[in-house]
Write a structure and sequence with these properties.
The complex is a heterodimer.
Chain A lengths: L3 E2 L5 E4 L4 E7 L4 E9 L6 E6 L3 E5 L2 E6 L4 E6 L8 E9 L6 E2 L3 E6 L1
Parallel strand pairs in A: 2-11
Antiparallel strand pairs in A: 1-3, 3-8, 4-5, 4-9, 6-7, 7-8, 9-10, 9-11
Chain B lengths: L4 E3 L2 E4 L5 E6 L6 E7 L6 E7 L2 E4 L8 E4 L6 E5 L8 E8 L9 E2 L3 E5 L1
Parallel strand pairs in B: 2-11
Antiparallel strand pairs in B: 1-3, 3-8, 4-5, 4-9, 5-6, 7-8, 9-10, 9-11
The chains are: A mainly beta, B mainly beta.
Chain lengths: ~110, ~120
C-alpha cells in the first residue's frame, strides 16, 4: 500500500522565521509531488508541485525533492501568522492519476 | 465564479436516509475526483472520472456509495442508507488533462452530519 507520512505537529514557529515541513513516501515509482494548504474548515488549496530532484521556488515557498531518500519538503520563509494552517503533502505514482495524501502537518506562526 | 462549486455546503441527515451531493467543475477540466476527509486526516480518494467515464471506483467505501457524471460535466455522489460513520467532509476536485502533473483544484466541500 502506498503511504505518505507527515508529522501531524503542531509545528510552532515565530513570525519571520523559516518553517520547514517534511513528507516521506513509500512508493519509489512516485513521480509528482504536491503541497496543499488547508485552513480550518476550508478545502485544500494548491501551493506548489515538484517533479524533479532539487529545489523549486515560488515567492516565499520552496519545495525540495529527494527521490533517492524518498522525501519532499516545503520551506516557508518569513513566516506570517496568515500561514497558520494545515499543510498536506500529496504524491502521485507514475502511470497513475490518483494522489495519495498525507494526514497533514499543522503549522502555527505566532506573532 | 470560475472555480469548482459543490452543493449543498452542509447536509444534516438521519441515519438510514439517502443523500446526494453535486459537484460542478471548471468547465474545461476533464478529470473530476471525489474524496472524503475526516478530522485530522488528509483527503481519502473515492473515485474519479475522465469526461463521463468512471475510471476508478474500487475505492468507494462500500456499495452504499455511488457516483455519476452523465454528460461529462457535473457529477453527483450518492450515499444510500447513511450511517453515523459517514459523517465527514466530501470534497470534489478537478484537473485539466492539458496540464501534465495532475495538480488538482478543490471545491469548497460538502460537510455531512449523520445523526
Amino acid at each position: 500500500q502506498k503511504e505518505v507520512e507527515q508529522n501531524s505537529g503542531p509545528l510552532s514557529v515565530p513570525e519571520g522565521a523559516i518553517a520547514s515541513l517534511n513528507c516521506t513516501y513509500s512508493d519509489r515509482g512516485s513521480q509528482s509531488f504536491f503541497w496543499y494548504r488547508q485552513y480550518s474548515g476550508k478545502s485544500p488549496e494548491l501551493i506548489m508541485f515538484i517533479y524533479s530532484n532539487g529545489d523549486k521556488e515560488d515567492g516565499r515557498f520552496t519545495a525540495q525533492l529527494n527521490k533517492a531518500s524518498q522525501y519532499v519538503s516545503l520551506l516557508i520563509r518569513d513566516s506570517q501568522p496568515s500561514d497558520s494552517a494545515t499543510y498536506l503533502c500529496a504524491v502521485v505514482s507514475g502511470g497513475s492519476y490518483i494522489p495519495t495524501f498525507g494526514r497533514g502537518t499543522s503549522l502555527i506562526v505566532h506573532p | 465564479d470560475t472555480g469548482v462549486s459543490q452543493n449543498p455546503r452542509h447536509k444534516i441527515t438521519k441515519r438510514g436516509q439517502n443523500v446526494t451531493f453535486r459537484c460542478d467543475p471548471i468547465s474545461e477540466h476533464n478529470r473530476l475526483y471525489w474524496y472524503r476527509q475526516t478530522l485530522g486526516q488528509g483527503p481519502e480518494f473515492l473515485t474519479y472520472f475522465q469526461n463521463e467515464a468512471q475510471l476508478e471506483k474500487s475505492r468507494l467505501l462500500s456499495d452504499r456509495f455511488s457516483a455519476e457524471r452523465p454528460k461529462g460535466s457535473f457529477s453527483t455522489l450518492e450515499i444510500q442508507r447513511t450511517e453515523q460513520g459517514d459523517s465527514a467532509m466530501y470534497l470534489c476536485a478537478d484537473h485539466a488533462l492539458a496540464t501534465s502533473y495532475n495538480e488538482q483544484f478543490f471545491g469548497p466541500g460538502t460537510r455531512l452530519t449523520v445523526l
